[in-house]
Amino acid sequence: MIRRCARTRPLIAMLAAGLAVWAASAQAQDMRNVSVDAAPGPGDAERYCTNISQEMQELRYKIKEEKLRQLQSDVEAKLAELEQKRKELEQWVGLRDGFASRATEALVDIYQKMRPDAAAARLEQISPQLASSILLALPPAKAGVILNEMEPKRAAAVTMILAAAARKDDGT
User: Fold this and answer.
1) What are phi and psi of 83, to 5 degrees?
2) What is d(CA 44, CA 38) in angstroms, rounded to the nearest whole number?
3) Could you tell me the residue ranges of all domains in the chain?
4) Distance between CA atoms of 137 and 139, rounded to whole angstroms?
5) What is the pLDDT of residues 12-69, one digit of tens each?
6) Cα separation of 129 and 102, whole Å?
């Protein structure tokens, strides 16, 4: 019996080794099958994208709509701010115009009460445009006497401005 065991031992060892190889092979095959089955195919990705495309589109629309609402709110706030600034500017322009008209009237009265030679000397010291606007506001007789007292070149420059202003008034 001892002999028999000695002959069967290598056979059993070979059988055990073969069984181990076969088991390892089967396990590897199962692993390949599992990994192949678990990986999504190209059709799965398309189905997923198709299934969520409508939801994603709606989400994008909601995000864009919210951005537009925010922009509209910002624009309305800026418009309100600009309207407030416009009202303030109109008030300042009104105050400035009122002050300018009172100052112009007072200035014209001052030049009207001055002697013609003194008025001419002062008008020669300021810009021809300002001098012509003052002379234009004076009565023609007084303006003529003051122009007569001015230096000829300055009087000519002021007269050209007065003539241009008269043409604008005539529409020619």
Assistant:
1) -65, -40
2) 11
3) 56-113, 115-172
4) 7
5) 777 777 777 777 776 766 666 554 445 555 678 788 877 888 888 999 999 999 999 9
6) 19
